[in-house]
Amino acid sequence: MKYIYERNPDTGDIYRREFNNYNKREKIENNMEKLSLYDYLGHAAGADLGQQVAYAAAKAGVITETRQVSNSVYKGPVMLYPKSFLDLYFKGGLNEGASGKQLLKG
Hints:
alpha+beta, 30% strand, 29% helix, 6 strands, 4 helices, elongated, disordered C terminus, three-stranded antiparallel sheet
């Protein structure tokens, strides 16, 4: 059996379907784990760092999501970024000429 693999660019979900069969597809995986800065760093990032990361993600064309949180310190939306992007951003692998495709490779 031959399969076609397709990725949803908005969610990162990967699907497969049989060749020439457009009626049934199967979800394989979501390869773009998304985290908030708090989840990634283990502490609050603060507004300045949050804005810097959001700017870098937008400039690179990285797809982000939001999640609503509510705790004793903060209530409202937080941005979620692909872990691969955050790894590059915080470990020095992000450069000015990088595109979103380069950032999420590997």
